[in-house]
Automatic annotation (TrEMBL):
Protein name: HupE/UreJ family protein
Keywords: Membrane, Plasmid, Transmembrane, Transmembrane helix
Source species of the chain: Agrobacterium rubi
Source superkingdom: Bacteria
Keyword Transmembrane helix: yes
InterPro entries in the record: Put_HupE_UreJ
Segments passing through the bilayer: 220-243, 255-273, 279-299, 306-328, 340-361
Leader sequence residues: none
């Protein structure tokens, strides 16, 4: 049977925990019958489930002083286990805060949910995020801490000592630098937006069309203005949104980002803001910066850690953007005067427009099949 997982996301002042328990095992432990109609049953039993976890999760300092434990959101998710068999898990979000003046990095974890009733059950304890050690959940595998299970010799369930390494701000900085680079490398919309901004670089607008060819110096200056304006825009938004810890809504910002790609793609096809591209890039950068801030908002960082993270994350973004510019700009300048560039520019514009419309529809949750069949 599948077992439970307790994931610890270590912040500066508290630990945010994610507990995942197979629903069938929880039924055995609580004497319930959630499996036949999980959503309805769990919704009704929210308070009872919270009380159960509060009773079976106790955290203390190494000398025995109790932590404050608060059970938050209860949810359900489908998980793939061994042999590709799927099963339903109940998840609980937990906030664990140490006594004033004590560290979050040393604790005794007393956890026996399900284990106290199902002797064969165990709980895997892992660290998902720990900024000071450079462990960021999106980077890959979590850190193994230990397993809580029944001792077969005396049938006891011993608390698990958790002693996290001290870590450093340097490790946190390097992790955020890597996160900034991976955020752009995995963000197809951000890359497409940057490439769309670059496509007109070697061209000059003449009579409302891209008919002229810019000199190399002019093209480089155009790229410098565009990249600088975009950098200033997204950096300002990222800093303000992160330091003020603004609670921004994801959907409208993601929709607007797709819209910025659409507008930029139209500009590539025919200049709609000639000579003012850098202003538009700066304005659009503000929106992209708000989206970047979502990544940092998910981490439980102190103000000092957040400042260091902003520097590292932003630097990672800039390094990857500069790598993209260095990779594509030489070929753009080389072929700008040939007959090959116009088809490439038009194709790039069309691809960007199609992608942006698709993203807008997806982020607005538009049912195209329904619309087309009406």
């Amino acid at each position: 049977m599948p077992n439970s997982v307790v994931k610890l996301n270590v912040g500066s002042k508290f630990i945010a925990g994610d507990i995942a328990v197979p629903l069938i095992e929880l039924d055995l432990a609580m004497g319930t019958d959630f499996r036949h109609d999980p959503i309805a049953a769990v919704t009704v039993a929210q308070d009872r489930i919270r009380d159960y976890f509060a009773e079976h999760l106790r955290v203390a300092t190494p000398d025995g002083s109790p932590w404050t434990v608060s059970i938050k959101d209860i949810d359900l998710q489908k998980t793939i286990g061994d042999a590709n068999a799927s099963y339903v898990e109940l998840t609980a979000k937990v906030v664990m805060s140490p006594p004033e003046g004590t560290s979050v990095r040393a604790l005794m974890l007393n956890y026996d949910a399900v284990i106290h009733k199902v002797a064969t059950h165990s709980a895997l304890v892992i660290v998902g995020e720990d900024w000071l050690t450079g462990q960021i959940d999106v980077h890959g595998d979590p850190i193994f801490v230990g397993v809580i299970r029944v001792n077969p010799i005396d049938n006891t369930i011993a608390p698990l000592p958790v002693n996290l390494s001290k870590g450093s701000y340097w490790r946190g900085f390097l992790a955020m630098l890597q996160l900034g680079m991976s955020h752009i490398s995995e963000g197809t919309d951000h890359i497409l937006f940057l490439l769309t901004l670059l496509l007109p670089a070697p061209l000059l607008p003449v009579n409302g069309r891209w008919n002229g060819k810019a000199c190399t110096r002019g093209a480089l200056f155009y790229v410098f203005k565009i990249v600088t304006a975009f950098t200033i825009g997204h950096s300002m938004a990222l800093i303000i949104a992160s330091l003020l810890r603004l609670n921004l809504s994801h959907q409208p910002i993601e929709v607007i980002i797709a819209g910025t790609i659409l507008v930029s793609a139209i500009h590539v096809l025919r200049p709609i803001f000639p000579g003012r591209g850098f202003i538009i890039a700066g304005m659009f950068g503000l929106v992209h910066g708000m989206a970047f801030s979502f990544t940092l908002a998910a981490l439980n960082l102190s103000t000092a850690q957040l400042v260091v993270s902003l520097v590292g994350f932003n630097l990672g973004i800039e390094l990857f953007q500069l790598a993209i510019v260095a990779l594509v700009l030489p070929s753009m300048l080389l072929f700008a005067g040939s007959g090959y560039y116009a088809p490439v520019r038009i194709a790039g514009s069309v691809i960007a427009m199609v992608a942006s419309v698709g993203w807008i529809a997806d982020r607005l949750d538009i049912d195209w099949q329904f619309l087309l069949t009406r």
